[in-house]
């Protein structure tokens, strides 16, 4: 009794010692709306993935695929029928039960003719979705797909309910460990702990995700401790300062972001493989990593993440050698060099990297006219309009080498051989065979010099030194907060 | 009265000379990057240090002065070239429809904050030094038009103008032969002030990424690039900032000094 009083007194007397139960974490980009199943914007997943919304499967922190709303599954002999057993006792935040009907609704909506899902290709192989009973759903594929469980883990494949779909863009209702409480546009999204969560309850009671796009403001907010953490800290040059400060911890993880100098393969002069090869040799990757990212990043020689076990290091195919580059340009008929455009989106890897690349290309006789674009303009002009010569961008989707099989994709690489290879890969389920096909794919685009492959984007997180459980790496764009807690 | 003119002229001259010199010589090439050499503090080899790409900041500021001066000069030229004739015409037709049209048109342009016009133009036509010049030039037009009209109106009631009218000269001819020479002093003073404002506007536009595009060095962009590095290498932000402050200060002092020297009214009183 006496002891209990003392404890109570201590709690009253020193509120500063009380366990902190809320978190303010900042990210750079604000989502355009809050429906991950109808937009390509990665910022939506940065806020909601595994916090508010969950899929049948999900990515774990190490990038592996683990069961989420599906407890278990069986795959038929021929690899075309997946039978999922759904977790029991799961409910949406609005109180409605999660059942097989919701899975059917979600997948049928995503693969429908008029679906606006940004990754419709993920669902292309599905031929039907059958509700067996409320806890069992059967998905029939038109052909075996070795990637199917992986595909279902994407943020674009999270389960939504028909009852709440109408207002999903402003009021997302999912099954995750946090419920959505408020979105103050231009500033923050607030989440609260879901007390009915099916899994282990999160240790945080509330989480605020703030949007700070300006690197200088990010630095100031972190230094003043207005925010507890910044995931994807935008100014690598400040990291040493945070590292030296005992109040903070700096976690540098990897991302799925292959940062590339994309070339317009459909237009002169980049329709000539020799010119593309020349560009690849003209570029000094290490100088770009040092100059633009202050040393953060791993050089890559193909469109594949180095931390993936199937990665093949092909940087030797395009070592930095201005002499070879000049020779190749001469062979291609550009002794005098040529001029082209270099359109740069806002992140510092692009803006600073662009200036360095422009200087390196000038060395071999390629003059570039740099245009700095905002994201909306970049999407309009470059990504959709294909009006560019060169551009720099980081492709942050996991396992996205498949974009090279899409001739209408912005860099317009049209190689039937590669498209066939990708089709074979999709239809292959044997892991060893898949690995060798993936290696072939990496080699093919690297030998074709489709784009100049620069480096794998690092993912720096600056956080309060007492925070535990933040995702170190970004196997997909996400900041799951269920496992985050304060130490001491 | 030389108290302002001399230091103003000297400061301005330093930057003009630096800009002109940069055509022939800079300590280092501004497009040469030496990443290993980045963020060096001022030293004998690099008088003002190096930036985040290892470029020499002194060389960048010299070439940047060229960008600033060129943009501001052409912008003031546009403002004068359009504004002065408009102002003369409005004064010549004082109270008439033309006067109303010109001055209300000016009010319209004047009503927009200058940077908003600049952002509008660059948003439509894309960011570049040329568009920055046009943007800054356009908001100079009403400044010169108003100034010219105001000064010209005062002159139109003077006796020597009456004499010219009696002699049979037309309004256009009087404007050119008698009004314009008498407002030139004012225009030179205002031109200097607008020139310094033009340099500020160019720096502001470049700072937000709407001015000269890389690799053309520009003071505003040097500042923008440096802002996340202030904590570890303050000189990278300090140097272009000082360049802007000193140039604008110099031009303002020069403008004030010129006004004192050229304004006949002030001159009579003080001499």
Automatic annotation (TrEMBL), chain A:
Keyword list, A-Z: Signal
GO cellular component, as recorded: ATP-binding cassette (ABC) transporter complex; outer membrane-bounded periplasmic space
Compartments it resides in: Periplasm
Secretion signal, residue range per the UniProt entry: 1-18
Residue ranges annotated for the Solute-binding protein family domain, each copy included: 65-393
GO BP terms in the entry: peptide transport
Top-level division of the source organism's lineage: Bacteria
Database matches in SUPFAM superfamilies: Periplasmic binding protein-like II (SSF53850)
Record Pfam families: SBP_bac_5 (PF00496)
PROSITE patterns for the chain: SBP_BACTERIAL_5
One GO MF term attached to the UniProt entry: peptide transmembrane transporter activity
Assigned protein family: Belongs to the bacterial solute-binding protein 5 family.
Protein name: Peptide/nickel transport system substrate-binding protein
From TrEMBL, chain B:
InterPro entries tied to this protein: BP-dependent_transpt_permease (IPR050366), MetI-like (IPR000515), MetI-like_sf (IPR035906)
Superkingdom, taxonomy of origin: Bacteria
Pfam families xrefs: BPD_transp_1
Keyword Magnesium carried by entry: no
TM annotation in the entry: 60-88, 236-255
GO biological process: transmembrane transport
Keyword Transmembrane helix among record annotations: yes
Record's keyword terms, sorted: Cell membrane, Membrane, Transmembrane, Transmembrane helix, Transport
UniProt membrane topology term: Multi-pass membrane protein
Domain ABC transmembrane type-1: 65-255
Matches recorded under Gene3D superfamilies: MetI-like (1.10.3720.10)
Location(s), subcellular: Cell membrane
GO cellular component: plasma membrane
Annotated signal peptide: none
Stated family: Belongs to the binding-protein-dependent transport system permease family.
Protein name: Peptide/nickel transport system permease protein
Species in which this protein is naturally found: Roseivivax halotolerans
